[in-house]
Write a structure and sequence with these properties.
Elements: H1 4-54, H2 60-71, E1 74-79, E2 84-87, H3 102-110, E3 112-119, E4 124-135, E5 138-147, H4 148-199, H5 213-277, H6 283-315, E6 322-326, H7 327-341, E7 347-351, E8 355-359, H8 360-376, E9 382-386, E10 390-395, H9 402-405, H10 427-438, E11 441-447, E12 451-457
Parallel strand pairs: 7-9
Antiparallel strand pairs: 1-2, 1-5, 3-4, 4-5, 6-8, 9-10, 10-12, 11-12
Length: about 450
């Protein structure tokens, strides 16, 4: 399969050859007809000039010889009856009557005649022009003839000159065509090279073509396509990275869930097996074991509830049940519940009470998660400060590094390097979703080894 510039060049060569052949044929016949017509006109004009001198010249024989020498044309003068009275190329006595010559017949009938034929008198092919004239009331025929060989020779010389000019034009056109073909090849090669590198996803500086409008548009479109593909590739890379991260997070959450369920299940199985194997246990120990089983079953139920709540919040399927309630009373109830599990820790509540309109259960879950985080990651007291438009939960614990502050509320995200475990990675994600669902704002300020402040701002 040929390249485009080769096809282009080949078509031009074929076209030029066809033009050359057609031009040669057309020009040959066209120039020949033009040249013969011009020769006829010249002969006719010479006859007209000679006619002027007939009346002035007393010696037509001598004058015809001079005319012959000067113009190299055969001159014949006939009487009305066809008798030759003057002949430039042969003795008139040797010539027969010309009354039946084709050109003389035409001249007698139409005033002017012409013919091309072989002359036995001079042994040449001649072009004859004859005219009928009147001198002193006498009718004469003046005939002039030119050698066909000479006419063809002159015509051939003219044709050669025309052919040389046309050949020079073809050479010039061929050179221009070659230049165009070469340039088209270069531009096409650039486009193909760019496409190759584009398919291999290689970086390349692509220059917009200024050779023609078509190549300009093609290169601009290619650049646009390359930009679009680069953006899509970037998005695909990001999407792949996100999928990889999501898969890693899911693996982590499955591992965390397995870990979270493993301990309570082990406790339940252990105490249940002891009860089953020893029916003689006294009531006090039995109740203690049953309480352990109950508490661990509740723990597993809470984990499942947190997962379900996280999914519903993520999918926007959790509806809000608005009511007005005392924020201080709700926080106090949360503190009382947490003290059962954190008996040796101090939770300090301060600030003025405010009435808020929200979903009390969901907002309670969010605030409880924040307070419990403070208790988990701090050995000191946890402070809760109520303000007019927000609630602050402050701890003096391990804090969170700057790079993890923006990620800490991401679903399934667990910071282990900072000592943060964040349980299943759902606690702060649930908090953020609940706060956003209410149209509130969650703010976080944290310094490593100094502590963190979580704030819910009621917009």
């Amino acid at each position: 399969m040929l390249k485009i510039h080769q096809l282009f060049f080949r078509k031009f060569i074929i076209l030029f050859c066809l033009i050359a052949v057609i031009w040669g044929v057309v020009v040959y016949f066209w120039l020949r007809d033009i040249y013969i017509d011009q020769t006829k006109k010249n002969l006719s004009q010479n006859i007209d000039l000679f006619t002027i001198y007939i009346e002035k010249s007393s010696d037509l024989e001598t004058f015809s010889k001079k005319f012959k020498d000067k113009l190299n044309l055969r001159l014949t003068i006939l009487k009305e009856d066809g008798t030759v009275i003057v002949e430039s190329d042969k003795s008139k006595e040797l010539l027969e009557n010309h009354i039946n010559r084709e050109e003389i017949i035409q001249a007698r009938n139409f005033g002017m005649g012409e013919s091309i034929r072989y002359s036995t008198s001079v042994n040449k092919d001649l072009l004859y022009i004859a005219k009928k004239i009147e001198v002193n009331n006498d009718i004469y025929y003046i005939r002039m003839a030119d050698d066909i060989v000479k006419i063809k020779s002159d015509f051939t010389a003219l044709s050669i000159k025309a052919s040389i000019i046309f050949a020079l034009f073809l050479v010039f056109a061929f050179f221009i065509t070659y230049q165009i073909s070469t340039k088209v090849k270069d531009e096409t090669d650039k486009v193909l090279e760019y496409l190759k590198k584009l398919t291999k996803k290689e970086d390349i500086d692509f220059e917009i073509s200024t050779y023609s409008q078509e190549f300009n548009k093609i290169t601009k479109l290619l650049q646009s396509v390359a930009t679009i593909l680069a953006k899509k590739e970037k998005k695909a890379t990001k999407k792949t990275a996100k999928l990889r991260l999501a898969n890693q997070q899911k693996d982590d959450i499955i591992s965390a869930i397995s870990h979270e369920f493993k301990n309570p299940i082990a406790v339940i199985v252990g105490y249940a097996k002891t009860i089953k194997d020893d029916p003689t246990l006294n009531k006090e120990i039995l109740n203690k074991f049953l309480t352990k089983i109950y508490n661990n079953a509740n723990k597993m139920s809470n984990i499942i509830d947190r997962l379900r709540l996280s999914i519903k919040l993520e999918e926007g399927k959790q509806n809000l049940m608005y009511s007005e309630f005392s924020l201080k009373n709700m926080v106090q109830e949360i503190i009382n519940d947490l003290k059962e599990n954190y008996k040796n820790r101090e939770i300090i509540l301060s600030g003025d009470d405010i009435t808020i309109k929200a979903d009390e259960m969901l907002l309670g879950i969010a605030i409880k998660n924040l307070i419990e985080n403070g208790l988990k990651y701090s050995d000191n007291d946890v402070k809760i400060v109520l303000n007019k438009n927000k609630i602050d939960i402050i701890d003096n614990g391990i804090g969170i590094s700057k790079e993890n502050v923006s990620k800490i509320t991401t679903k399934y995200y667990r910071v282990s390097n900072d000592g943060w475990n964040n349980s299943l990675g759902l606690g702060l994600s649930i908090v953020k979703n609940i706060v956003n669902l209410h149209g509130f704002t969650l703010e976080l300020e944290s310094l490593e080894d100094e502590g963190s402040t979580f704030s819910i701002v009621f917009n």
